[in-house]
């Protein structure tokens, strides 16, 4: 009786399409980002439900006659508010709701419009047409930089006008925020004082650096300029 001979498994040849480290890394990042978007959507929906519950509790609160019923409703409202606070902190670390489905350009345009309405500062936003082709993590980083930079303008700059610009180049995207205010202190801009933490400069630098980009802030002849530059494949 002839013995069965098991052939060794085929070895991959030089022409076989093997997954490279870069491919696996990109696939992992995409899977992670999709999971973050899913979590963000769930948190967003849950917060909406909590707000509806608070609304009904407030309506009921105006109709109760017994003190213990009012106390129970107040406890329920306080618990919902505490839950929303935690969810907002979690959501901030995942994906800003404004970016979900809208993309960086639309989210920044909406934020700039709202910033002008809230502060009264003349705010101009410019961005090129067409797809930005920017990694989701880079979108989050640039959106947070814009938020923090504009918040600093409103708090400290004494400006009348601010320009927000997105510039797309072949392999990178640059976000700049220019205001016509009093100008940032050079020492503060250089990060040589603990006051740096108070205006979020360290946070902005860290976000950009983690993605292999460069962050700069400087006093100009007309005010202050914040610049964040990221590779489009960040």
Describe the structure.
The protein has 234 residues and is of the alpha+beta class. It is 52% helix and 15% strand.
Shape: globular
Query: What's the overall average pLDDT, rounded?
Result: 78
Largest sheet: number of strands, sense, barrel closure: 5 strands, mixed
Q: What is the chain-wise order of helices and strands?
A: HHHEHEEHHEE
Percentage of β-strand residues = 5-15%
Unreliable segments (pLDDT under 50, ≥5 consecutive)?
Answer: 1-18
Strand order of the largest sheet: 1-2-3-5-4
Instruction: Calculate the terminal CA-CA distance, rounded to whole Å.
Output: 62 Å
Structural class: alpha+beta
What oligomerization state is this entry in?
single chain
Number of strands: 5
Radius of gyration: 25 Å
Number of helix segments? 6
Q: How much helicity do the residues have?
A: 40-55%
Summarize the structure.
It contains 6 helices and 5 strands; from the N terminus they run αααβαββααββ. It is of the alpha+beta class and 234 residues long.
Indicate the topology:
Layout: H1 21-61, H2 67-94, H3 104-119, E1 122-126, H4 136-157, E2 161-168, E3 172-179, H5 186-189, H6 201-210, E4 214-219, E5 224-231
Parallel strand pairs: 1-2
Antiparallel strand pairs: 2-3, 3-5, 4-5
